[in-house]
Amino acid sequence: MSTLDTRPPRALRGTRRGDVTAYVVLSVCALVTIAPFLLSLMTAVKTPQQFAAQTSLAPPHPVTGGNFSTLFGGQYDFVTPVVVTAQVVGVILVGQLFFSVLAAYAFARLDFPGRDALFWVYLATLMVPQIVTIIPLYAMFAAAGLRNTFWALVLPQVFGSPYAIFLLREYFRGIPEDLISAARLDGCNTMQVLRYVVVPVSRPILATLAVITVVSHWNNFLWPLVITSGPTWQTLTLATANLQSQYNGNWTLVMAATTVAVVPLLVIFLVFQRHVVRSITITGFK
Description:
single chain, 2 domains, MetI-like fold, globular, transmembrane helix, MetI-like, transport, Carbohydrate ABC transporter permease, 286 residues, mainly alpha, cell membrane
């Protein structure tokens, strides 16, 4: 009596090998992505003496929070840059969402002469590098007496951006016309359609846009560097850069500052990750 062959079929074995290979590659990619953040955190909880005496990959022993105490103490006063950055990002976020929704709905659903041509001309400004507009913007704000002010930090971005309007326009165009027509039959005007129909069904894409806006402007460096001077309106990126000078290189303080800058962004992503994932999947409307 012959024994049964319990080996899995060749196709199944090939599938399993493919799965193992995929997981190994993904694990390596995840490690490469996470490693800089882990290294930053490890350096942030070391003393300058430990950092100088050990290799950068050596774990901290003992762990210290002295770098964070130094940052938020009287010598550096890192509280002010964090508050300024939060205020700037908050105002820009509200403005971006409000004005981008209005503009995107107009380009997606309203008929007016030259709509498509105007949209594509506006979208073409995405091709213009930011550095090209820095000098004209600086000249405009300096002439208006707004240099080194809060409004100089927020006004160039608060009225929406081509990317935000393009992103929302494409999403709004996918909303079934029957929903909007039903709202109009119920007596809703354009603003009511936006409030009661378009915005509620667009929460995933709005959450994604909010995360993108917060991350991009929380990390903005060039424009605050050009338009501000002194500690009054210093943002978090400028304060971190100022920790390094030609004659002083305290990397443990710099890594502590970058950790402080990264933590709020991680919290925001963890809170809104469900909406971000939903926005990039194919969804249907009942």
